[in-house]
């Protein structure tokens, strides 16, 4: 039992465990939130620190690059340089060209003294392919050999840079130093404006990468990260690392994203920061390994995870200890209850629910036992009252003893029976929802019986029970001297009707028997109440029917029977056979009025009248068509429903519904007969027209108008009628008959085409030929030739 409870998926253990876990996880979640917030703050501080250091690098380098741009400006706008490139004096004095170049070389030596941070610079002249250096002038090939020659930087590549038109910017290059070693350098290239589509000269100002890195090597970002300086074309101008950037490095992000995360192909993860110089448009990029970048954050994360693990481990142990300690009393209680209540194998339950259900089940069993005992007592008492009313009480058991057993007192001498039938209960049922119709009906009967017994108990005694579809109440009257018992019963019946109608919207018909002096006459009183209730059919519902009053009225009833004379039946039958619904309804209303409003007939005669009316309708159907098609044959329960009518109004409603269906059927039959007769007459007229055409096809005047005159009909009407029934127009039929007859004439050798045309009523041979070709597809002459062959 213990294992079954602990590992049960719906056990209280699971609920407690979830509660403890939620409490345990609350500080863990708070710790996670604090870690995330501190991690975010640390990240922002690291980013701000790196951004600040990168800005310092940019500030230092921008000053260096600014000196290169300043030197370029002074060289470009030097008077001697402008005269060399743009003056026309060398056309008149060509020998001065070399002198001016030497002067510019001496001028460059003075600039070298003024700009000690610049390692090397020169001017490339496109005109004579020479290079002006401080203090000297060399040919371009020799200058390349002494300045840049290397395997990675060819002479053609150097010349392409020197002759690039309209270019100004920083590019990476290599330079041969004074110690004859190659050095990486940053070159500022500035070309002079193009003249006659040819470049004039190019200024080259170089600063070694070692000088640039030496200026920033003391910065923290320089020591820990990978610092790059890129130009507009993302070429590396300077780098503190000899390693090249990965081939998949996202250069496009540098333009829009100040910092981002990057994972290289080698699996290494980097944090990238970059800023751009607003003046030189160079990009300063710092690439740091994530392990260095997040070193402090990782320490905090490890501490956080360690504290969470310790908390979860300790909390889990305490949860298990307290859970087991708290569950033991519940387990013992469940074990005690489970001895009296068994479960199916594998059934899942919650311990508290199990205990609650066990207690509720015990209480319900006790209440159900009491309820069944009380219900059984009421059922036995109701059965006893029913047998007492029907005179079937067991004679071997004294009535006095039975009355004592059922706590009933019938010690007065006056007895009567009240019978109650429900006429209208729909509004009461509509108020009650989510209940079956059977339960609703039981509740209605319970209310009626309690109301009747309560009203009777004020002065008398009454015991109600259900008999068939009605409720019967045995009444033991307590009457004073000279008091009228029938009036007392009528008063109680009226109060019952009024209260149930006003309170529950239940409408009743109540019948009352005569008053009898002995309990042995109770069965006779019950029969009298039944006979009185039978008058509900002719008296209508919601009435109080007293047996004494009905007997007095029945004695005065005329003996002439009911009103339904032969002539009225003939009129009714004719109206039904003709399908005249309004006329038939008027006759039926007159019959009902004469029998029930004016005369008043008994129940037996009422049933006879209904059968006569149904017989009349069935005769009408039989004379109109096959009686097997009648809905009376297909729906035999219609007659049973009519005969079981509760009152005259209901009976009149059913009769009118039947009359509507009968008249609809007979009217449809009549329309079908009329349609068939009309169709037969039209077909006969079409046949007569066809015969007339056969007899008069030789008459040249035969046409649609002549046929209309002969049959005294409009030509258009006959033409449409003939087309509808024969499938072709009148004129087409005339031409078809004439052509068929002409073919017979053409088969005779002595008959010519003209003779054949005249013989079938054509005065114009051309018209004959046209019609013949239209009908047969060939001319009559061709047809005659085919026949002769």
Describe this structure in words.
The strands form three sheets. The chain has a six-stranded antiparallel β-sheet with strand order 3-2-1-6-5-4, with helices on both faces. It has a five-stranded antiparallel β-sheet with strand order 8-7-11-10-9. The two termini are about 115 Å apart. The chain is flat. Helix 20 (about 565-580) packs across helix 25 (about 650-695) and helix 25 (about 650-695) crosses helix 27. The chain is α+β, with helices and mostly antiparallel strands and about 800 residues long. The longest helix is centred in the first third of the chain and has 65 residues, at about 10-75.
Quick rundown:
With 789 residues, this protein is of the alpha+beta class.
Main beta-sheet annotation: 6 strands, antiparallel
Secondary structure tally, helices: 31
| Residue share in β-strands | 5-15%
Distance between the termini: 117 Å
- The general outline is flat
Number of strands: 16
Mean pLDDT: 79
Q: From the helix content, strand content and strand pairing, which structural class follows? A: alpha+beta
Transmembrane segments: 12-35
InterPro entries: Homeodomain-like_sf, HTH_AraC, HTH_AraC-typ_CS
Protein name: AraC-like DNA-binding protein
Keywords: DNA-binding, Membrane, Transcription, Transcription regulation, Transmembrane, Transmembrane helix
Please tag this protein with its features.
single chain; 5-stranded antiparallel β-sheet; flat; alpha+beta; disordered N terminus; transcription; 13% strand; 789 residues; DNA-binding; 6-stranded antiparallel β-sheet
